[in-house]
Queue: 4 jobs
Job 1
Amino acid sequence: MKLHDLAHGRTGDKGDTSNISVIAYHAEDFDRLLKEVTAERVATQLNQPASAVTRYVLPQLCAMNFVIKGALKGGVTRSLALDAHGKCLSSILLAMPLTGSDT
């Protein structure tokens, strides 16, 4: 099972900082997401230093917002990275395998 099976994402970017919100499709899956989608795992999945990722929990929305500083390598319009927009990072994050799953 992958993260996209239990949640969807919304993204935004400002300068070289990306925001990725992970929102549970169903409230009953939110506790599992809280346990498995940590700042450390997000950093690993996005190949970012752990210190660059901050997680904010929004329990009333069954959501988390991750702020990733420096992820866009100078900003979308200045970066030489291919497709450095937050949407690309969101897709990479939502492909993260969840533990205890077969895929």
Note: The mean pLDDT is 86.
Job 2
Amino acid sequence: MGKVSLEGMEFYARHGYYEEERVIGNKYSVDVTLDLDFSEAASDDKLEGTVNYEKVYEIVQNVMSIDANLLEHLAGKMIKALKENFSQINHVQVRISKYNPPIKGLCHKATVELEG
């Protein structure tokens, strides 16, 4: 067993509970950690023994491109899509951050973390 992580993927998207967030948009950061057995890739140096990082990024990008109200919903959709595309994944951890969330005060980012 091992872990593969893609960290600091950045997107500009129009997610949010408030209509203004969906009009203006915002910057988001996504980290994904996948638990899987990649012993074959470690010994044979073949992509088939692990996950294709480019495909993982594309899945996250596709989810981020569809407007949603909640970060929690986006994280759930990412977990489902990643598991559907890579049967060798045993566990997924997704962390999504929204920069400068619309609260009445200073806050660098709001973050949601979901595992599945």
Note: The first helix runs from residue 19 to 24.
Job 3
Amino acid sequence: MLQAGFLFVLAGLAEIGGGYLVWLWLKESQPVWYGVLGGCILILYGIIPTLQNFPSFGRVYAAYGGIFIVLAVLWGWAVDKKIPDTYDWIGAAICIAGVSVMLWAPRP
């Protein structure tokens, strides 16, 4: 479970970080190497989920969606200096609860 959590966070950071670099290149006129580096990081994001031990592609990617939401809130707080409000935290907690049910619910 610890390895799964680590891979979820690593993939989420790769997705957000890579996307952020592409954003900076295209929206904020940063040098093209920002976009190239962001694209390379996004390729890593595509590879990292394959390291998970869960057998279902759909469940793994759905879980990444929930983790991504939490990481995006934290990224916005740390990088964009947008302080999350109570509703951001409630929404993030609901997403984590949903991810937990999807991945670790007992199944026959």
Note: The two ends are 20 Å apart (CA to CA).
Job 4
Amino acid sequence: MTAKKTLVLGASVNPARYSNLAVQKLTAYNHPVVALGKKTGSIGNTIIETEKKDFDNIDTVTLYLNPQHQQQYYDYIFSLHPKRIIFNPGAENDELADMAKEKGIMAQEACTLVLLSTNQY
């Protein structure tokens, strides 16, 4: 499996949140991870940023925000030039998915945790 640098958007320090589990599991599967959330903190060695940083070489953006909270990140997501956006359960967004497809970015409604567990990431 090729390592895919991933931005977890909607990351949380709360260990009960799926975004937190995703950061942990991505790291365990040796994917480089960067995280962006509302509050600073860390998940293992991954720092949760609160500012939209210009991360390099992002392969995948995995979303843990509901569609209403995604709109403020549209331009930011596209500025990172990801190859894929994963819409985790609760983050499905036809508007953003259609915009991504128009830009040649794969839009995938899936669960990052399941994709990792089944070697489909």
Note: The chain has a mean pLDDT of 97.
